[in-house]
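Listing 4. Sequential folding, example run.
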Amino acid sequence: MPAFLLDREVQLKMLKELQKKRTELKGISEEAKEKRNTLNAEASKLATKRNELNKKTKELINEAQKLKESRDEINSKVHEQKAQRDSINAKANELFAKADSLRKQNNIGGPSIKSLRKDIDRLEFTQQTEVLSTSKERELVGKITQLQKQYQVKKTQLEDNVELKNILEEAQKIRDEASEYHNKLSEFAKQAQEFHENMIATFKEADRTRADSDIAHKEFVKAQEAADEQHKAFINAQKEIREIDKEIFKLRKKDKDVRGHPAKAELQKDAKNIFEKFKGGGKLTTEDLMALQRSGLV
């Protein structure tokens, strides 16, 4: 078999192997491209989820900070009311201490007239609203009678002692004023506690959304890195395909040249015969001259 035919057989075998390799690389390239696109879409969703959670976390923290500011503002009012109450109570306590001193001086002891009045009202309410046995009602009536006597005695003592009466009235008036501040204080304290509890709950919710955001970010990074690996695999496969295409192009060109070789060899053989004919003194025809031109010898 001529050498050029052997060369062509080797070239065709190489071409077949390259085409097979190209097909395999094309499959790898398409698979890597599909995986890359899927992973990029997943990473995009995770990034969106993470960003939304970060936004929510920021909003919750801002809300919690506002609640904290409101709580602190109310607590300031609590402190103000407490200071006012304590200051007024101090004045009332001074007057009650002075009243106690007058009682001792005048041998006036026992419960206050206001305390006696409350006890009488409480027992009379029980008598009017509850069903009692005869013995219980008799006992209750006895207590009411006893308290009424103490009340009258105390009332007489106070009416006789104008100074003590005036001090106690002034002290009670001041104590009532202090009670108003205490009531306001209690209301503000309740509001502050509500703000505090809401603030704590909001901060906890912010912590939860931040944790969810961290998880989403880790998953995003993982998906993005996997997508990058698939992209590298796609690029490498594409690069190899281009290299193989170059080699295929070269082999096909070479094969074309080889396939044209027999015809050229035949032309050159005919040309040599014509040339020998000419050297021998033979006359060249127009066809002979054209054959010499096609062979490249002239």
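-- end of first protein; second protein begins --
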Amino acid sequence: MNTRAKFLSAFLIGAAILAISARPQFNPAPYYAPEKSITVQGINTVYLDSGSGQALLLIHGFSGNAYNWIEVFGPLAKDFRVIVVDLPGYGKSGCPAKNQKATMIWYADFLAEFMDKIGAPQAVVVGNSMGGSIAAFLAVRHPEKVTKLVLEDAAGLKGGKLELLKNLGTITAPAALIPVLHVVFPVTEESQAKAPPSERKRVELAELRYASDLRLCSSIAMRQSAISLGTDYTEPVLNQIKAPTLIIWGSNDDLLPVATAEQFHQKIPGSQVQIIEGGVHTPMQWKPEDFVKVLKDFAANNPK
């Protein structure tokens, strides 16, 4: 390599480092409820915790955060202790350690430890999308933690558009993942105009994180999550779930078709299915009143 080429290479590397280091510090606005944080496995974990009585642990999906649950948090907190956690690598929580892969199984074990640390040894565990996969693994690996299980438009079975995430994660370098996701799953003014306020707030926080000094570590966690979603299927272990289980599905889910609910039902002994008419992939955002009613009825009237 000649002197000019070496200089150009060094300049480009330096410019890339400068661009990364120049990203602003992540400094989001406060959530809709008082925030708490606790260190779990060395990770600053942000969560919301309100109400009293039986605990509900709400787990968001891929690229999600606490705003996914803003519409249902208050109504549920009238009757339960409601815990909403930002998973490591998402929302306002820190990132996993560099030597830790953010897999579905790791997240499940992480949440078991998180529950102990916040004084919630047991809970009705509710997981949406990727959070559903994590919740199912939590119920299998730590059955003493899960009094009841709610899988809402859950990932974990083969097939569906979420398979695309595994493919993208496999072929895409972490630094390029977020731009690629923006192309494959575009966020447009038109789509945001039609979305509920909770979804607009979720996207706003996610984009703020992606534009901050947490971009790279978030991309790494998201890439690992995406690959695990399409590799670590819950399907082989669903028959080991002992907790009473409710499967909630939006009738208009465009990522995981409503027929998937029946597949989960066939694989989880004694499970129930509730279809929310007009709901999409996140019924708690698009049909919050229906979601709250269904969840409250199940949590209150189906004791373990």
